[in-house]
Amino acid sequence: MDDYSDLRPARQARNITLTSAAQHLGVWPTVISRLERGLQRHDTLATNYRHWLNTHQIDAA
């Protein structure tokens, strides 16, 4: 899969910061940002990121 357009909306819907996501995944925030914007391809990271996002409840705040 090389379409990462779902990642940023999923992260934002859960009120997870770019920094928090990056820390959890062990990468720099710029890597997550570039992945979300489709500027960098990394299928394994995207799969792990998507799985992590899908295991978090959406924050209704």
List the helices and strands and how they pair.
Blueprint: H1 7-13, H2 18-25, H3 29-36, H4 43-54
Helix pairs in contact: 2-3
Comma- or semicolon-separated keywords:
single chain; 61 residues; mainly alpha; 434 Repressor (Amino-terminal Domain); 57% helix; DNA binding; Lambda_DNA-bd_dom_sf
Description:
By secondary structure, this protein is mainly alpha-helical. It has a single domain (about 5-55), classed as 434 Repressor (Amino-terminal Domain), CATH 1.10.260. Helices cover about 55% and strands about 0% of the residues. It has helices at about 5-15, 20-25, 30-35, 45-55. It is globular, with a radius of gyration of 11 Å. The mean pLDDT is about 90. One of its GO terms (molecular function) is DNA binding. This is Transposase. It comes from Mycolicibacterium sphagni.
Short description:
This protein is mainly α and 61 residues long.
Which class best fits the helix and strand makeup? mainly alpha
| Helix/strand order | HHHH
What is the fold named in CATH at topology level?
Answer: 434 Repressor (Amino-terminal Domain)
Poorly predicted ranges (pLDDT <50, ≥5 residues)? none
Overall 3D shape: globular
How many H/I helical runs?
4
For this structure, what is the CATH class? Mainly Alpha
Provide the domain count.
Answer: 1
**How helix-rich are the residues, as a percent range?**
55-70%
First-last Cα distance: 31 Å
Strand content: under 5%
Organism: Mycolicibacterium sphagni
InterPro entries: Cro/C1-type_HTH (IPR001387), Lambda_DNA-bd_dom_sf (IPR010982)
GO molecular function: DNA binding
Protein name: Transposase
